[in-house]
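Quick illustration for those who missed Monday's session on complexes.
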Amino acid sequence: MDSAQSRTRLIAFSSGKGGVGKTFLSLNVAVALAQRGHSVMLFDGDMGLANVHVLLGIHTEKDISDVLAGRCALAQTILKGPAGVRIVPGASGKRDVAELSMLELTRVLQGLGSLVPAADYIVIDTGAGIGTHVTTLAQLSDAIVVVVRDEPASLADAYGLIKVMYQEFGSQRFQIVVNGVSNPVRGNQIFERLQNVAMKFLGLPLELAGVIPQDSNAIAAIGRRDALLTAFPDSVGAMAVRRVAAKLEGLRVDAGSSPFLIDRLDAVSLGAVT
Ligand SMILES: Nc1ncnc2c1ncn2[C@@H]1O[C@H](COP(=O)(O)OP(=O)(O)OP(=O)(O)O)[C@@H](O)[C@H]1O
Ligand SMILES: [Mg+2]
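Prediction with magnesium ion bound:
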């Protein structure tokens, strides 16, 4: 393995629109990567409205806000999730964390990258919207996975996110997951539609990471406070998520991209840090 491939890879799940399946996918792709033998961390980057650990019914007293306030070390916040995924809980309903600066956010991720044992992958649930947190987390990542559903608002917001990340931050590699579709053909049509718009207005090709069917087991897994992949491994949803994980696992990182996250923030955005 060359050094670019052996360093921790960051995969951000984003969407623009809320409620389309970012948390579902980031948790289950993290589990799938762990089941494929990787050391995986799942960072709940939905700042201020964190919910990964709540979804799994894990109680925690320490989160990122305690780390930033100097009350505990980053390692002390880590929770054990399904398949050994190390979960880094965000802080729920805390204003100081909701207002984290880009530099603080970068330091948190840098800290995660230095924890022992080193993670092969840090999967990030960025939360909804195209605010600074989301764009910073996406900018720091090696792959930006954009989750869309078969709804005009979801497609419009996904395009909005891609446009901002491309035009303002130079991101060019977007992996699209079409979630919650009734059949694979429809999923491919949705992807084609988004791809056509991105090509027409930005000249930017997109990649399809996969199509996930609507699967009632996803909700049933939440009832069990578990991931779909561990609660219902043979479900159609779980199989589709595993295919997405296999695709993302194979992505090469940019040979030229720095392992030091701070180097990946461009000068313009760093200038905005106060
Ligand atoms: N493929 C699917 N089949 C069935 N239910 C799904 C599927 N994907 C997601 N869900 C369900 O849809 C709901 C919303 O998903 P999720 O919470 O992951 O969205 P989100 O994008 O993280 O939302 P938010 O923007 O509020 O953070 C959840 O109840 C989740 O279990
Ligand atoms: Mg979410």
